[in-house]
Amino acid sequence: MNKKTILYLLVGIIVLAVVLAVVFTYVNRYSGGPEETPNTGQPTTSTVDILSEYTNKIVYTTDTSENEIPYRQHCEERGGNFDACGTVCEPGAEICAEVCAYTCTFTVTNAPDSPDGSVNNGSFPNGFSPVSQWQEYTNTEIGFSLLYPNALMVKNPVDGSVAFTYSGPTQDPNTEFFDGISLTIAVVDTTDYESLNAYVREQITDVQAIGELINPVSTTTFAGRRAYEYSADTLGVSHHRYVFLSPTSTLHISYVAPDPENRGYATVVETMLETFSFFNQ
């Protein structure tokens, strides 16, 4: 094959390529070719990251620099309550890392179904009704409501606080509390403190004078409001949340759940708190 023939062949290949390109462009433009989906650079609700999934909670991601809208949409589609600074730990965890995560929590009527089609109510101790049968407690003085199992007693002291209590099967009367649940919700006057942070720092100082922190103070949100939380070991392990109400008042939520038979008391309390909501939100 001489040089002239090779040259004609190359020219023919180039001409053919140009003709094919023109034809492809014409067909794609005028014959209703496939439309491109805009790439927004953000995950869609069907591809959001899920770090962990528990009975009444989904943990999406700890990278809160990501656009929260797709995660919020996914949570709403599942019927949950989105939190841009939730905890990464499962409900009832004794120790939790101090890091914000996109989370989605579920209440009684919208908890995801389990594979067998029944409502996934968590693993609760014998004698505790499933979440779908819990009662609603409403406190008009403080302005909140939550759900609680029938096994708990509700007490409203004259100071306006409320206490939910349960005595376990090994609890002896008239002795120290070592088996059961005691959850207290009360409003604290913080008029004399410059901020909620200052009030919590004083509480920590008092704790360290008689015991130790087992879960350091962390900032979080609770029912859509700014809050601090920690766990301490003084006369037993206690868990505390301080929720901002106003510059002069704070909601203090505290509970102890000594569980010698590992019956799941902490899970019961944390599930109750996941159903907590303020009236004006």
Structure in words:
The protein is built from four helices and 14 strands. It is an alpha+beta fold. The protein has two domains: 78 residues, no CATH class; 158 residues, Protein Transport Mog1p, Chain A. The strands form three sheets. A seven-stranded antiparallel beta sheet has the order 7-8-9-13-12-11-10. It has a four-stranded antiparallel beta sheet with strand order 1-2-4-3. The protein is elongated and about 110 Å long. It starts with a helix and ends with a strand. About 13% of the residues have low confidence.
Number of strands: 14
Order of helices and strands: HEEHEEEEEEEHEEEEHE
Give the overall average pLDDT: 79
CATH homologous superfamily annotation of the largest domain: Mog1/PsbP, alpha/beta/alpha sandwich
CATH class of the largest domain: Alpha Beta
Question: What count of helical segments does DSSP give?
Answer: 4
Question: Could you tell me how far the N terminus lies from the C terminus, measured between alpha carbons in angstroms?
Answer: 85 Å
Helix content: 10-25%
